[in-house]
Amino acid sequence: MSYSFLRLFIGYGLIEIIVPISKPAMAVLGIFTFMGQWNSFLWPLIVTNTIQMRTLQAGLSLLQEQVPMQYSYLMASATYSAIPMIIVFLAFQKYFLKGITVGAIK
After folding, report:
1. How many Å apart are CA 79 and CA 35, to the nearest integer?
2. How far, in Å, CA of 78 to CA of 71, rounded?
3. What is the DSSP code string of 15-73?
4. Under DSSP, is residue 106 helix (H, G, I), strand (E, B) or coil?
5. The pLDDT of residue 53 is above 60
6. Under 8 Å CB-to-CB from 44, ≥6 apart: which residues?
7. What b-and-e string marks burial along 1-27, b requiring 16 or more CB atoms within 10 Å of the CB?
8. Which of 37, 58, 78, 91 is deepest in the core (most CB within 10 A)?
9. Distance between CA atoms of residues 48 and 92, nearest Å
10. pLDDT digits (tens, 9 = 90+) for 73-93
């Protein structure tokens, strides 16, 4: 087997065969990774020094401490923090449903 044949086979196989098959799985992995990182609470709370550097979820707990019993502010902030996750899900919904149902075929 020559080097040019091997390079052609590997290049064609990777780009033309493997990538289209794995698009739904990569989209599901991307959505789950984004949601996990977006909702991370403990690590940003430990690492940050100032209130201005904290993430939105850590800010929600701070808001709950600052204005107790003001559930309207807390629910508005929680809705605001969920908007990026909804946008990412709607953008990749087609791939997400394919990736989830690919293993459920009888």
Report:
1. 15
2. 10
3. IIIIHHHHHHHHHHHHHHHHHHHHT--HHHHHH--SGGGS-HHHHHHHHHHHSTT-HHH
4. coil
5. yes
6. 54, 55, 57, 58
7. eeeeeeeeeeeeeeeeeeeeeeebeeb
8. 58
9. 31
10. 888 888 988 898 899 889 888
Residues 68 and 74: their CA atoms lie apart, in Å, by: 9
Residues 9, 55: Cα–Cα separation, whole Å: 46
| CA-wise closest residue to 43 among 52, 54, 59 | 54
Of the two residues 68 and 7, the one the predictor is more confident about is 68
What is the Cα–Cα distance from 26 to 99, expressed in whole angstroms?
Answer: 8
CB 96 within 8 A of CB 31: yes
Comparing C-alpha atoms, which of 28, 33, 3 is closest to residue 92?
28
Amino acid at 61: S
Say what the pLDDT of residue 32 is. Answer: 87
**Please, what's the largest Cα pairwise distance for the chain?**
73
Q: CA-to-CA distance for 46 and 61, rounded, in angstroms?
A: 14
